[in-house]
Amino acid sequence: MRRLTHYDYWTDKLKPSILEESKADLLIYGMGEKPLSELVKLLEKGISFESIKTIPQTVYIINEELIPENKNWENFELFSHDECIKDKIKYVKNFKIIEEESNRYQSTKRLIQKVGQKSIIVNPPFELFSEKEMDAIYNLPFTRLPHPKYAKKESIPAYEMIRHSITLHRGCFGACSFCTISAHQGKFISSRSEKSVLKEVEQVTNMSDFKGYISDLGGPSANMYKMQGIDIEQCKTCKRASCLHPAICKNLSTDPKPLTKIYKQTHKHQKVKKAFVGSGIRYDLFMHKLNNPDYADYADELIKNHVSGRLKVAPEHTSEDVLKIMRKPDLGMFHEFKKLFDKINRKHQLNQQLVPYFISSHPGCKNIHMAELAVETKMMDFKLEQVQDFTPTPMTLATVMYYSGINPYTMEKISVARSKDEKLSQRKFFFWYKNEFKNNIISELRKAKREDLIDKLFGKITQKIHHKNKRRKR
Ligand code: SF4
Fold first, then answer.
1. Ligand 1 centroid to 100 CA: how many Å?
2. Which residues contact ligand 1 via a Cβ below 6 A?
3. Which of the residues 120, 356, 385, 425 has the least number of beta carbons within 10 Å of its own beta carbon?
């Protein structure tokens, strides 16, 4: 994610490509299997690092002015690192090109960026993995064990989470503004075959420490398995960052049948007590077609048999303005999903919980949006626990907006909560029910003339505080 000029949160400044600072010979970005095997082949032939310049999905740095020719790729020169530092707009314009190219079905643009007298050359990515290639990768003899250097550690939390989990696919076409997945794995989905997935289910059930629970049948977004454009030719020329935002593309097939089949087959396995879906799901992928029995069947199977008691979903916000900037579906969809979740739970006499994730201080989010979020989530009976302040990571749309205060797609200014105080001030609305925040929230909403929100949050108690304060003043 640091292959070109990027914002570094820890130093609060723009940094050049990591190649410039690290002095590495070559950088491989994205999922490394293909570029790495190409690289090894060439090195084995005795070709030197310095002359390896044609492997897709690699980045290198050259000292000389002359950019090496390549007949398969078209060069595109971005604004230089120095120009980006001097002018935020140039950094913003660069991002739009970089995002568009990482989201293409097959980019042929070689991105070039000057850093001082040198040039960073980013070769376009490899083509999408085929099902056969995906199966070959997952067929490798992985030990499913942590690296031996952790041998003395009693437990590794991240490993506990993944040791009995299974990846079904790669890529994500959601393009949430704060997420790096599409820049890393691409927008298009590469899926494994059902046979390969079920073979891994078998392997996991044979592990000596397997107790009957698969922790995740997932992917970056759990329910995008085998999803793709109906007419791939249209996808090949498409520049949209997201297939889901602002509305689900008519050319996108959201058929859940292949995934439902894997869920059901795994559930039926005699050594599996439960196979959970631990990765986040995109409920908009089935909520829009629930009148179709295949979609309803998927939702039923997911909620009935694959929730570990708590299903994680990520509405991320409730305000329409903020959701639009985040490229997330509107809140109405979440309300509908909650109704469906509760209905299926009642139908199967289950007592499962929905755990929504929310973010504060995302670019474009103001305190009043957070107050609305507090009211909305109170009305839905949620006491929030999975919340986070937005943290900028390199190469995301949200980070570009955070640094520049500009939306690259509209070039409009956008408000950003940057200081610690501004962030805490937004965060307190998640915990509106705690006494320590109450008076502060009330006085802030009064100043904003939003007594309606005070009443919705604190009801009659507000009146009491109001009268008490009046008495004190007298
Ligand atoms: S055409 Fe539609 S389905 Fe295909 S990539 Fe573009 S937005 Fe996605």
1. 13
2. 173, 229, 234-235, 238, 240, 243, 249, 251-252
3. 385
- Contact by Cβ (8 Å): 162, 144: no
Cα 358 to Cα 378: distance, rounded to the nearest angstrom: 13
| Token pair in block for residue 415 | 């408000």
How far, in Å, from the CA of 252 to the mean position of ligand 1? 6
CA distances from 325 to 25, 184, 220, 319, 397 (A): 37, 21, 21, 10, 9
Ligand 1 pocket: which of 251, 254, 327 to mutate (most atoms <8 Å of CB)? 251
Ligand 1 center from residue 234 Cα (angstroms):
7
The residues of the chain scoring below 70 in pLDDT are 64-65, 460-474
Using one digit for the tens of pLDDT, what is the confidence trace for 429-459?
Answer: 999 999 999 999 999 999 999 999 999 999 8
- Residue from 235, 239, 244, 248 to probe ligand 1 pocket by mutation (most atoms less than 8 Å from CB): 235
The structure tokens listed for 121 are 């050359």
pTM recorded for the entire structure: 0.92
Number of Cβ within 10 Å of residue 301's Cβ equals 18
In three-state secondary structure terms, 244 is: coil
CATH number of 131-473: 3.80.30.20
pLDDT for the residue numbered 460: 57
Question: How many Å apart are CA 109 and CA 350, to the nearest integer?
Answer: 52
Domain locations along the chain: 6-122, 131-473
